[in-house]
Design a protein that fits this description.
- GO terms for molecular function: ATP binding; DNA binding; DNA ligase (ATP) activity; DNA-directed DNA polymerase activity; exonuclease activity; metal ion binding.
- It contains 18 helices and 44 strands.
- It is α+β, with helices and mostly antiparallel strands and 805 residues long.
- The longest helix has 18 residues.
- It is elongated, with a radius of gyration of 35 Å.
Length: 805
């Protein structure tokens, strides 16, 4: 600070002299508009106990093509960060100083290295400037002009770029809302931005825990944030932040409140989530931010009231449209942002979020009004198991300096407080100190919930007043949390609200999630000979979904289930049963007796995995899709050999069938079934009905059997099948199914029904050539069916002529 102090007479200038206090969590930043000899903007970046400073001659520009000269000046004390006021004439830098922007910043690359090489890359998290920026030192004369360092300040190309010129847009102080003239004259701070009557607290709408993502035109998904739920009320007496229980926490989030100033309204009540800001993530960092006074970010996802008008009765899409118009006035990537919306299939987004360590997604019905309390129009789908639990006590530690070894946890279940196990990891020294301080005054002699004697030994019980957020792998068989990790105290939630959602403690083994579906008993061995578990089956169907769905989606299907694995009972199921995941959808279809029955179908990976969760190994599909059930789009010939026939004979039969179909103008592709035979599949245009397709396939099968009766049969009789190949044409009648491409088979070794090329088929020695791992590792053939043909009268006549010949 020697250079800074040497230039100033602190007896005549109001500029701060003391060094100031460093930030607690994230480095701070500010820009001061300085009306000195020339008006310029001073950029301040907190680093290593000082403010690195540059004088930006024309101010920052959001146009990525603009390069603004930034002259490096002496380091300033941290106390200068929020300085505003007039510097009297005769002093260094005489003129009016306005606090033009303030916030936090985050270096993208190491600062020391950047200063040395002359390139600082960083992000700003200010009230006005946001996003990525670059400072680049000019070469040549930069160090020959009285040690003056000339840099260039440039905006990175991101969502905050190419907006309205901020220098022209913001002409008032970011803190006092005064103009330069008002600051110079010593005028009082300007009044609040929102002059209307501030709304009061309302009970928020809550989401219900769900196993799968939602589907359909009336749903969208939003991120599940790792923070505090908050309702922000805007009005004449300034913004207020309410927790989900109605507590006023405006003082704790004071650093966030100015972020609502740009919202052009008289009053509003906005629903959203407060998370740690300035690039920080996670609930533990949010708690640290609360202690440090920031940084924060507010993600708005609903608007309950605007300018005195109640919007809760309107559908979500209408409320969101109003919210978009309101929040869009705030700087992009700033303190106040819109919750991103995922429309359509959210499976890929969910997988990406979970892989990145995110919380999960919230599914919301877009046509539903806003209703307080927990309901089914908002559904939360979590990446991991993470809930709130009540602290029941602490386990004494035998390590010196450690106040406790673990915490005993509980939750309410049907009105009773029940013991749920212990958490012994996730604490840092600050957590332990805070927990110890909070628990000692509420210590008690008796346990607030019944716990086994073996687990109660050495526990100091407490009155159940504290709530902790804990993640865990699963519930064990004895109803205890497994691999629990502490994330922080939830001061915004009361113990009475901590109730287990659903009968989770009744589950024997849960917690592993695949494609949004929670897999129970994931370690159960399904294929004993191949040591393949239920989790591996679920993972397989998630991995092959992109290949399997083009053929399987939107078709009525039947399942072969083995809930206890191959050593248990295996059965065929046509209709959805109780407890099936919602991702396995149903469609009502009339059967031959006139009754309507719920048939299953899938549309995405979660549907396939949802079936696997119910013990499904095989998927069998109809030859038509649910939008045109009476018009099949595929014809299947199942070449089923008698025992003892070599696989090469089945391959030859498939080739002969292909040639006949080709003569009829019907391209076909082969699939080894994972059993004994081969399917020859003909893609169809949806012009013929079931009876026509069935008749065509029967006639063709009969033709081949009559021409070569020693090789083929077209009847199911086992007696007539001896030494022959049964050409099964019965797959082509309404309600009949065939094994789906890429489906596992309920056979030893976990073979897969695999589409292959005609050249490849001749090289195979068995229909079970692709067990699960080989199916995952092989190069997938191009999907067949790009050239569907119709069963036309001309083709029927051609087939009849072949039969007559």
């Amino acid at each position: 600070m020697d250079k800074y102090r040497a230039k100033r007479d602190f007896a005549t200038t109001p500029e701060p002299q003391d060094a100031g206090d460093p930030s607690g969590l994230a480095p701070r930043y500010s820009i001061q508009k300085h009306d000195a000899t020339r008006t310029h903007f001073d950029l301040r970046l907190e680093w290593d106990g000082v403010l690195l400073s540059w004088a930006v001659t024309k101010g920052p520009a959001l146009d990525t093509s603009e390069k603004r000269l930034a002259v490096r000046t002496e380091d300033h004390p941290l106390s200068y960060l929020d300085f505003e006021g007039p510097i009297p004439k005769g002093n260094y830098g005489a003129g009016t100083v306005m606090l033009w922007d303030i916030g936090h910043w985050r270096p993208v690359e190491p600062v020391a290295k950047g200063l040395q090489k002359g390139h600082l890359h960083f992000t700003l998290h200010g009230r006005r400037l946001t996003g990525g920026w670059h400072l680049v030192r000019m070469q040549g004369k930069a160090k020959h002009d009285k040690d003056r360092e000339n840099w260039l300040m440039m905006k990175e190309d991101d969502d905050a770029a190419r907006r309205r010129d901020p220098v022209l847009r913001y002409r008032r102080s970011v803190s006092t809302h005064r103009t330069m003239r008002e600051i110079a004259s010593g005028a009082d701070p300007a009044p609040a931005e929102h002059p209307g009557k501030r709304p009061g607290f309302r009970k928020p709408q809550l989401a219900t825990l769900h196993d799968a993502l939602a589907h359909g035109d009336h749903w969208w998904h939003e991120l599940k944030f790792d923070g505090y739920r908050a309702l922000v009320a805007l009005g004449g007496k300034g913004p207020r932040v309410f927790t989900r229980n109605g507590h006023d926490w405006s003082d704790r989030f004071e650093d966030l409140l100015p972020g609502f100033a740009p919202l052009d309204c008289k009053s509003a009540l906005i629903d959203g989530e407060i998370v740690a800001g300035a690039g920080l993530q996670g609930f533990s960092n949010l708690q640290k931010a609360i202690k440090a006074g920031g940084p924060f970010t507010f993600y708005a996802f609903d608007l309950l009231e605007l300018d005195g008008t109640d919007l809760t009765g309107q559908p979500l899409h209408a409320r969101r449209e109003a919210l978009d118009g309101l929040v869009r006035q705030a700087p992009p990537l700033g303190l106040v942002q819109l919750s991103p919306v995922i429309e359509g299939d959210a499976s890929e987004s969910f997988a990406t979020i979970c892989k990145a360590g995110g919380e999960g997604l919230i599914a919301k019905r877009t046509d539903a009004p806003y209703r307080a309390g927990r309901g089914k129009t908002w559904l939360k789908v979590k990446c991991e198991r993470r809930d709130e639990f009540i602290i029941l006590g602490w386990q004494q530690s035998d390590k010196r300096g450690r106040p406790f070894a673990s915490l005993a946890l509980g939750a309410y279940r049907e009105g009773d407080l029940v013991y749920a196990g212990k958490v012994g990891t996730g604490f840092d020294s600050d957590d332990m100190e805070a927990l110890s301080t909070a628990m000692k005054p509420i210590a008690r002699k008796t346990a607030p919930a019944k716990a086994p004697t073996s687990e109660a030994r050495g526990v100091q019980w407490v009155t159940p007043k504290l709530v902790a957020e804990v993640s865990y792998a699963e519930w064990t068989a004895d109803k205890r949390l497994r691999h629990a990790v502490f994330h922080g105290l939830r001061e915004d939630k009361s113990p009475e609200s901590v109730e287990l959602e659903g009968d989770v403690m009744a589950e024997d083994d849960t917690g592993q999630t695949v494609a949004g579906i929670r897999i129970t008993h994931p370690e159960r061995v399904v294929y004993p000979d191949a040591a393949i578990t239920k989790r591996q089956v679920a993972d397989y169907y998630a991995a092959v979904a992109d290949r399997m769905l083009p053929t399987c989606e939107d078709r009525p299907l039947s399942l072969v289930r083995a809930p206890e694995g191959m050593r248990g009972e295996t059965f065929f199921q046509k209709h959805a049963g109780k407890g099936f995941p919602d991702a396995l959808r149903t469609v009502e279809i009339g059967e031959s007796d006139g009754q309507m029955e719920p048939y299953m179908y899938v549309t995405d990976a979660s549907g396939l995995v949802g079936a696997a969760q119910m013990g499904t190994l095989e998927f069998h599909i109809w030859g038509s899709r649910r939008d045109r059930l009476e018009r099949p789009d595929r014809m299947v010939f199942d070449l089923d050999p008698d025992e003892g026939l070599a696989f090469a004979e089945v391959v030859a039969a498939a080739g002969d069938l292909r040639d006949i179909l080709s003569d009829l103008g019907l391209p076909a592709w082969p699939m080894v079934t994972g059993g004994k035979g081969i399917h020859v599949v003909v893609p169809l245009r949806r012009v013929a009905e079931w009876e026509t397709v069935k008749l065509f396939s029967r006639v063709l099968a009969t033709l081949m059997a009559e021409k070569e009766p020693d090789r083929f049969t077209a009847t199911m009789s086992k007696a007539k099948r001896k030494g022959r190949i049964f050409i099964d044409w019965l797959r082509n009648e309404r309600g009949a199914t065939a094994i789906a491409p890429f489906s596992l088979r309920a056979r030893d070794g976990a073979p897969v029904a695999m589409p292959v090329g005609w050249d490849e088929l001749g090289q195979l020695r068995t229909a079970q050539a692709f067990p699960l791992q080989a199916a995952l590792e092989r190069d997938w053939p191009d999907a067949a069916g790009d050239d569907p043909r119709g069963i036309t009268e001309q083709r029927i006549e051609r087939l009849q002529s072949l039969l007559d010949g």
